[in-house]
Design goal:
The protein is α+β, with helices and mostly antiparallel strands. The chain has 10 helices and 24 strands. Bound molecules: flavin mononucleotide.
């Protein structure tokens, strides 16, 4: 801001120089405030230099609540910053008025900068942002600098950047609807008015006249509703004597966990292709997602009543292949068509069949890896099926899919998993860490960090 356009700064500087009211009688020596909405007013310069004892209750409350690294926005003559500094709080004061900043420094504010709040976090900030702030203080109708309701989203986006996790904004404002109160006590707002708190002001001190600027007075309900849209919560922590209030704005952190009724949503689920021979040695395959490891050498599959179950009753040996992106269509096909009524099911699937070396069951050569299994136990057997527990007799892996260490390379296989929520198949991606190893990083960290990693 050009100092020739800085009436507030000039008044503050003059007052500090003389440490006394320059002249209360002469119009030109007062900090005059003009607005289309209100009668001409003035800001008594003594209030800009007030001590804690002379501050209104809501400001005292805000200063009592300030903790941690604090940013005093629109700090003026620095009266709030000085109180906090005195209390040992690490406070940074910013103001767009160069003469105010110069005066603050003379008064002993250690960190005072000429800085537009809205330029913080962009390339235009004049001081290095030292991380985020635990408290952002905006007093003397401080949230007014937002100017209009439409600018609130920008304000909250800036908070996303500069407010530390768990941090707070302490700001005051007023509900000025009383201005529109009729003699009958009704509030009558002009029809053509956007929001009654959106005002415009201009200041003059001696011959220094500032630019008109927009100023927002916002009632607590509107602030609460607008803040919620941007993910912030507003709590009114104190009320003043004249429709003014102190608000504490914090980021909403609670996770909204929606409930769903019980269903088979273990994630991720495998896509297992079970291969069996019928009593005549004709191969069959079915798709199964409800299966997994049972013990070190055993697997479990929840089996319904299928051609596969018929085959296992005759011959308790089978294979389990892991479906891939390349075999996905036929893998789904064998899960929706039964060998009981589709004699050419396996011809349609089109897989190359070979007898497994260790069990009497088919191996489908298009799959990179196959378990050779033998039924060990049928749990809860009924006409609708049973839980099958089977021993893993041997594991076959196509040499193409071996890693350099000679073991199966799961990343190479393009394996798919079944998404039971949307009934899709999802291809596995890259390895993201090392099991039984990466977790060790947290062993010596303070608690609370683990959940974020
Ligand atoms: C994605 C998917 C997962 C399936 N999971 C299972 C399962 O875990 N258990 C089961 O008995 N059937 C499951 N099925 C159904 C069988 O694969 C299906 O009934 C098949 O037609 C049986 O073939 P079959 O009668 O030739 O043996 C699944 C099907 C699909 C598509």
């Amino acid at each position: 801001m050009n100092i020739k356009m800085d009436p507030m700064g000039r008044a503050i500087a003059d007052y500090w120089k003389t440490k006394t009211m320059v002249s209360t009688n002469r119009q030109a020596d007062r900090l005059r405030v003009f607005s289309p909405m209100f009668e001409e007013d003035e800001i008594p310069l003594t209030t800009l230099f007030r001590t804690y004892e002379n501050m209104p209750k809501i400001e005292q409350k805000a200063l009592d609540m300030a903790t941690g690294k604090t940013l005093d926005v629109g700090a003026g003559a620095g009266c709030h910053s000085l109180v906090l500094q005195e209390k040992g709080i690490d406070v940074t004061a910013i103001d767009i008025s160069p003469l105010s900043v110069a005066t603050m420094k003379k008064r002993g504010v250690k960190k005072a900068f000429e800085q537009d709040f809205f330029a913080l976090g962009s390339q235009q900030h004049v001081f290095a942002l030292e991380g985020q702030y635990d408290t952002i203080l905006m007093l003397m109708n401080g949230i007014g600098i937002v100017g209009t309701l439409d600018r609130l989203p920008e304000f909250f986006r800036l908070l996303d950047k500069i407010l530390a996790p768990g941090g707070q904004v302490l700001c005051d404002s007023s509900d000025i609807s009383y201005v529109f109160e009729t003699e009958d006590g009704l509030i009558e707002l002009p029809d053509d008015m956007a929001y009654y708190g959106e005002q415009s002001f201009q200041m003059q001190y001696k011959d220094t006249i500032g630019e008109p600027f927009p100023w927002l007075y916002i009632d607590a309900d509107t602030l609460r509703e607008r803040a919620a849209r941007s993910g912030y919560a507003v709590e009114v922590v104190a009320e003043g004597e004249h429709y003014d209030y102190l608000a504490r704005i914090t980021k909403k952190t609670e996770n909204i966990m929606k409930s769903f009724k019980s269903t088979a949503w273990i994630l991720p689920q495998p896509v297992l292709i079970i291969g069996t021979y019928d009593k005549r040695g004709k191969p069959n395959a079915m798709n199964a997602a409800w299966g997994g490891q049972w013990d070190m050498h055993e697997i479990m599959i929840s089996l319904g009543s299928h051609a596969t179950t018929d085959n296992l009753a005759e011959n308790p040996e089978f294979t389990v292949a892991f479906a891939t992106a390349d075999t996905m269509i036929a893998s789904d096909y064998v899960g929706i068509v039964s060998g009981r009524n589709t004699p050419d099911k396996m011809e349609k699937a089109g897989w190359t069949v070979e007898k497994a070396p260790h069990v009497n069951a088919p191996v489908f050569k298009e799959f990179p890896m196959t378990l050779e299994c033998r039924v060990k136990q049928k749990i809860d057997e009924s006409e609708t099926g049973y839980y099958l527990v089977a021993e893993i007799v041997n594991i076959l892996c196509d040499e193409k899919y071996l890693a350099e260490d000679g073991k199966p390379d799961v990343e190479k296989m393009k394996l798919i998993t079944f998404d039971p929520v949307h009934h899709t198949y999802i291809q596995l991606g890259k390895a993201v860490g090392n099991a039984f190893a990466d977790g060790k990083q947290l062993m010596n960290e303070p608690s609370g960090e683990a959940g974020r990693k």
